[in-house]
Specification:
The chain is an alpha+beta fold. Helices cover 24% and strands 27% of the residues. The chain has helices at 152-171, 208-215, 224-235, 247-250, 263-277, 297-304, 324-338; strands spanning 13-16, 26-27, 33-34, 37-39, 42-45, 49-57, 61-72, 79-85, 88-94, 97-107, 110-118, 131-140, 143-144, 200-203, 238-241, 281-282. Helix 2 (208-215) packs across helix 3. The radius of gyration is 25 Å and the shape is flat.
C-alpha cells in the first residue's frame, strides 16, 4: 500500500546583494535543462520557465542550494524565483541582482532534480519587459551529476533515478491495517481499488481518424486500438487529448464550435466519452499559452489589446460590447462550461 509520506523541512530563504558563501558556483547556462535563452554566461527567462540540473546526495544530510539571479520587474511586481528540490520550495523576489538560498537540513541520499523557476511573468502584453536572468548555481552537500554536455541517454537515466528516489523517499510509506474479528494467523489478501493520485496519459493524434484508431469502440482483438486500450485501462486513471484539444484547434472561429456535434469538437468529445465510460478523469489543455499559435487568432488579438472594445461588427458577430479583457474572461467561462 502507498501513502504520501510527511516530511518536514526547516527552510531558509535569503535575499541579498552580497556574494555567495560557496566557493565554486557554475554558470547557469551549464545546467542540463532549461526553457530560457542563453546570453553569455547567463540563462535568460523572458517568460515563465526554469533552468535546472540533476544532483547526487551521497549520504543523508543537509543540502544548501545558492542561486544568483537578476530580476527585471518591468511594469509589474518583482520577478519571483523558486528553488525546488523534491517537496522543498523556497521563493525569493528580485527587483535587481540578488542571491536566493535554500538551506535544507536533511535530504535523503540519492539523485534529485533541482529546478530554478521563474513563476510570475506577465505574459501576453506586447510591451512586457519583465524577465529573470539566472546567473550562477551552487550546491553544498551534493554534487552536480549532469550538465549541457551530458548525453540524452544519461539524462534519461538520471531522470528515472530521480523519479524512483522521489517515490521511495517522499511518496511511499508504511501503512498498518487492522482487521476486526479475524483469528490470529488468518491469511488476508489486500487489494488497492483506487488511487489517490491522477496517473494520466495522452491520447495521440490530430484528427478524428487518429483518435478512433486509438480509442475507437469495439476494437479488433490484437489491433493497435485494442492493445492501446488494454494498456491505458490497466495503467492510468486519467487522460488528456493531444493537439486537437488545444483551443486554437477547437474554436478557431469565435463561438462556432460550441455545438457538441461540430467536427472541431468531435475528437475532444470522443476522449471525454471514453474517460467517462472507463471511470477516468480527463484533463484539458491550457486555454492561454505563451505560444500564441496554440490559441485562436481572435484570442491573441484580445490578449494584445486588452483595453480595446470588443465591438459587434460584420467580422466580429460575437462581439460583447465590453473591453477585450472582460470579453475574454467570458469566453474562457464559456469554454469551461462546455467541458
Amino acid at each position: 500500500m502507498w501513502r504520501h509520506g510527511l516530511v518536514v523541512f526547516a527552510l531558509a530563504a535569503v535575499l541579498s546583494n552580497g556574494r555567495s558563501c560557496f566557493a565554486v558556483p557554475v554558470a547557469a547556462t551549464t545546467l542540463s535543462l532549461n526553457s530560457g535563452s542563453v546570453s553569455g554566461t547567463n540563462d535568460v527567462l523572458n517568460s515563465n520557465g526554469y533552468a535546472g540540473t540533476y544532483i547526487n546526495v551521497p549520504s543523508t544530510g543537509p543540502v544548501t542550494i545558492t542561486v544568483t539571479a537578476t530580476g527585471v520587474a518591468g511594469s509589474g511586481p518583482a520577478s519571483h524565483l523558486n528553488i525546488v528540490l523534491a517537496d522543498t520550495k523556497v521563493g525569493c523576489d528580485l527587483t535587481g541582482a540578488g542571491t536566493c538560498v535554500a538551506a535544507i537540513p536533511s535530504v535523503p541520499a540519492g539523485t534529485y532534480f533541482v529546478r530554478n523557476e521563474y513563476t510570475n511573468d506577465l505574459e501576453s502584453t506586447a510591451t512586457n519587459t519583465r524577465s529573470l536572468t539566472l546567473n550562477t548555481f551552487d550546491v553544498s552537500g551534493a554534487s552536480i551529476i549532469s550538465d549541457k554536455t551530458t548525453s540524452t541517454a544519461t539524462l534519461n537515466t538520471d531522470a528515472l533515478a530521480a523519479a524512483d528516489n522521489y517515490i521511495a523517499n517522499f511518496r511511499q510509506g508504511a501503512v498498518t491495517l487492522g482487521l476486526s474479528g479475524a483469528a490470529t494467523g488468518t491469511s488476508v489478501h489486500v487489494k488497492m481499488t483506487s488511487r489517490a493520485f491522477s496517473f494520466g496519459t495522452n491520447i495521440p493524434g490530430n484528427s478524428v481518424a487518429d483518435v478512433n484508431s486509438y480509442i475507437g469502440a469495439n476494437p479488433v482483438a490484437g489491433s493497435k486500438a485494442d492493445l492501446f486500450q488494454q494498456f491505458i485501462n490497466s495503467h492510468f486513471n486519467s487522460v488528456v487529448p493531444s493537439n486537437y484539444g488545444k483551443w486554437g484547434n477547437t474554436e478557431a472561429t469565435r463561438d462556432s464550435p460550441l455545438n457538441p456535434n461540430t467536427e472541431t469538437m468531435t475528437q475532444v468529445n470522443t476522449v471525454l466519452q471514453y474517460a467517462r465510460a472507463h471511470n477516468m478523469t480527463a484533463r484539458m489543455h491550457n486555454l492561454i499559452w505563451g505560444d500564441t499559435t496554440s490559441q485562436p487568432s481572435w484570442v491573441a488579438t484580445m490578449l494584445n489589446n486588452p483595453n480595446a472594445l470588443d465591438a459587434v461588427s460584420g467580422s466580429n458577430p460575437g462581439g460583447s460590447g465590453n473591453v477585450n479583457s472582460a470579453a475574454l474572461r467570458d469566453e474562457i467561462s464559456e469554454r469551461i462550461a462546455y467541458y
